[in-house]
């Protein structure tokens, strides 16, 4: 099998597995317990907090562990809106993951859309002009939601520039860095954001662990109540093993980041072959992108059909726009970039990562070209 779906979830790294097994072998671990076993569990969590802080250039104490990216996004959006007593307007970029988009829609705050350029990056001119004439009395604090790297296309966003515009207008920025962590340098100070959402399983950590970093002093209220864990910001017994796995995964991902970058030239060669031999259209070629992501389309060749044909050939990829039920929809991200329906319905995403072998790129291209030849020829003959 060739696994080219790292943006959906990355295989568990051996380092993460080992760290988790070590926790399971510790016996009962409740970090809130004051006895020896509890204190040992607390040690695991605090060491991981320090590791993660080191990876994103933050103080450990500004990190809240959660169950994953969705919860981190939700805590950022709902927690910021509550912290601002709803006196805010959310400016949500047109390419946000549903974990941000739906949290914003359910937050009770007014939501505006930040539009994209055809290059797939947020339109900074439009954002700047909007913020220049911002009516604070009527709209409250502007809160921008802008992801670091898009899950469908891998396109990197000008987060630091956008956050600076928002800061100058007295606003706040929530950055979903779930797909960027461990693949491009992430430094909260350089990004200038106020909240940063992270997830373990996109970098070879386990599912069930994530984190929200927030700038000290940034408005943030808890959205769930209970035992007051994580400084009262996320009640609930911590998933100690998953957090340990997250820590081991981030260490490995930081170590391997130069290797990840080498995927870019292999990806480019794969795209060049698919363009030349299969007539595909690649999205985001001219924009800064994650090295391991390629989103391409063959208009008229349904994304769902491509994904199934690739699966039969032993290659795991996904339609850029697959939702949690596995149903394929038209890609809203591509539509927001100005793509037409035909392109948006025929785009698939391949995403590579730490376990990828150089030969996987040819394997993906071979499988796609064979499937396209067979299916398109068959469709043409009926
Ligand atoms: N944000 C982005 C950009 C994502 O790609 C994902 C997952 O696909 C999430 C958030 C949700 O993360 P999790 O699966 O950890 O809840």
UniProtKB/TrEMBL annotation:
Role this protein plays: Catalyzes the removal of elemental sulfur atoms from cysteine to produce alanine. Seems to participate in the biosynthesis of the nitrogenase metalloclusters by providing the inorganic sulfur required for the Fe-S core formation.
Reaction(s) catalysed by this chain's protein: (sulfur carrier)-H + L-cysteine = (sulfur carrier)-SH + L-alanine
Keywords tagged on the record: Aminotransferase, Iron, Iron-sulfur, Metal-binding, Pyridoxal phosphate, Transferase
E.C. number: 2.8.1.7
An MF annotation (GO) of this entry: iron-sulfur cluster binding
One Pfam match: Aminotran_5
Keyword Chaperone part of the UniProt annotation: no
Gene3D superfamilies in alphabetical order: 1.10.260.50, Aspartate Aminotransferase, domain 1 (3.90.1150.10), Type I PLP-dependent aspartate aminotransferase-like (Major domain) (3.40.640.10)
PROSITE patterns attached to this UniProt entry: AA_TRANSFER_CLASS_5 (PS00595)
Cofactor(s), names only, from the UniProt record: pyridoxal 5'-phosphate
Family listed: Belongs to the class-V pyridoxal-phosphate-dependent aminotransferase family. NifS/IscS subfamily.
Name of the protein in its database record: Cysteine desulfurase
Occurrences of domain Aminotransferase class V (ranges): 2-356
